[in-house]
Amino acid sequence: MAEHAEHPAYPVGLRLTGRRVVVLGGGQVAQRRLPALIAAGADIVLVSPDATPSVEAMAEAGEIRWERRPYAEGDLSDAWYALIATPDAEANECASAEAERSRTWCVRSDDASAATAWTPATGRSEGVTVAVLTGRDPRRSAAVRDAIVEGLRDGTLKAPHHRTRTPGVALVGGGPGDPDLITVRGRRLLAEADVVIADRLGPRDLLDELPPHVEVIDAAKIPYGRYMAQEAINNALIEHAKAGKAVVRLKGGDPFVFGRGMEEAQALAEAGIPCTVVPGISSSISVPGAVGIPVTHRGVAHEFTVISGHVAPDDKRSLVDWASLAGLRGTLVVLMGVDKIGAIAQTLIAHGKSPETPVALVQEGTTAAQRRVDATLATVAETVRTEDVRPPAVIVIGEVVTVGPQGARRDA
Ligand SMILES: C[S@@+](CC[C@H](N)C(=O)[O-])C[C@H]1O[C@@H](n2cnc3c(N)ncnc32)[C@H](O)[C@@H]1O
């Protein structure tokens, strides 16, 4: 092999489904390589006296067959491909020689120059497999792979789908506001969009990055005439999709947490428009987290309940059972509740919740304007007034408020 070292490797994609692959050694190398072999559908036999707990779990799950013994001559017969990674140098040599004789492509973890195949640094994004070989520099391979995969995922590497660009609408959860907190899938779809209909909440900064040909529509400004505002948004989504545009409906947080995402998905389904839903990081968890408040904490809260506070507790339209909520020991997270927090706090106290229950209000969480204000159920209404807390804010009610470093300072 050594005399051919200057020749580059010949890249190829092996189709291993149902084909026998033998892995010798059940250590860290096997642990790293097995998932991709399993994903490729290979018929995998592991030969090794022992294995790491993760590899053992793959055998227990039936993803690989494990023969608990050392390598023996003949193990590679009928194998299309072999991974040699035992801690025994002599066994590796013998297995390598057997692979050469039986013309089985083989990777060696201990001596790449003695191998007949090299494993590229691989990554996948939306149906594209990226495989990078740089000869003897695996870190560079990994770095090149990462750059390409990341670029494909976030859309900064322009590689449009020519055969399969899916028409229709993507309802994308944009996360709480920090542009880094959108999912990679959401970001890629945004980069591929022709039209983006965006809410006020969410990662507005990302809209600045869109190329000039992308039409960005502020959902709040769509004229709705004789329709309800939501109907007008639904109609706009349908209209643009019917015109053959790739449409992204960019929403704050997660589309299905007080986001009316399902109403839009239903309207699209009725109009026969394909719709993809991309989850987002909901403000209900991430905004408290951004100021160091965990919505659960061992020994403090074993549940959290996310509540819409957009209608007052005594409003006939309210679907919230405030009496039951007052009886819970866990965390209450109220969205859209700044205006009604006085009535909400009074109702919770009236149903037995302690007036001393800690409360935190987090305004514009994860953005540059983020601000946390602390109170108790008894004082929160007054605090909102004196501190001029404004929407959007997440209100956290419960002992978790005092768990983190800022909460601890508050108690001190
Ligand atoms: C219509 S709801 C949408 C919630 C969103 N779908 C989610 O999962 O986060 C809007 C409310 O979410 C909360 N909210 C969203 N983003 C926020 C942020 N960055 N900071 C504080 N509150 C936020 C506020 O309570 C706001 O009134």
TrEMBL record:
It comes from the Bacteria. Its EC number is 2.1.1.107. Residues 169-380 form the Tetrapyrrole methylase domain. This is uroporphyrinogen-III C-methyltransferase. It holds the Pfam family TP_methylase. GO terms for molecular function: uroporphyrin-III C-methyltransferase activity. Belongs to the precorrin methyltransferase family. Transmembrane segments: none annotated. The gene is cobA. It comes from Streptomyces maoxianensis. One of its GO terms (biological process) is methylation. Keywords: Methyltransferase, Porphyrin biosynthesis, S-adenosyl-L-methionine, Transferase. NCBIfam families: cobA_cysG_Cterm, PRK06136.1.
